[in-house]
Amino acid sequence: CMQQIDALAIAHGCTSLRFDACDAPAGAGPFYRKLGYHLRGHMVFNRVPLLVFEKTFRSQTRRAPPRAVVQ
Fold first, then answer.
1. What percent of the chain stands above pLDDT 70?
2. Any idea of the CA torsion for 54, 52, 21, 43, to the nearest 10 degrees?
3. CA 19 to mean position of chain CA atoms
4. What are the backbone angles phi and psi of residue 64, rounded to the nearest 5°?
5. Average model confidence (pLDDT) for the chain?
6. Per-residue confidence band for 65, with pLDDT thresholds at 50, 70 and 90
7. Could you give phi then psi for residue 53, rounded to 5 degrees?
8. Inter-residue contact 22 to 48 (CB < 8 Å)
9. Is residue 56 a contact partner of residue 7, using CB atoms and an 8 Å limit?
């Protein structure tokens, strides 16, 4: 499922993907790290502690801008 999310983000030209997950002993932090996501910070929403993860996609997945034609 996470590979499909990555592929969809890349297909839409995204250079990174960020999301949050619950910061709890049974949380999915180790799972996301194994998939290449990096912990970028902590936050609290409605008194729930969260971890913020990000994955940056390689620049080669982005389309290069069109080159100018020189005559």
1. 82
2. -170
3. 7
4. -75, 145
5. 83
6. low
7. -115, 150
8. yes
9. no
Which letter does DSSP use for residue 17 in this model?
Answer: E
pLDDT digits (tens, 9 = 90+) for 9-64: 889 889 999 989 999 888 788 889 999 999 999 999 999 999 999 999 875 444 55
DSSP 24-53: STT-SHHHHHHTT-EEEEEEEETTEEEEEE
Distance CA 52, CA 65 (A): 31
Rounded distance, CA 24 to CA 50, Å? 8
Tokens of 11: 């297909």
Quick one: tokens of 57? Answer: 């996609």
Tell me the pTM. Answer: 0.71
**Would you give the DSSP letter of residue 35?**
T
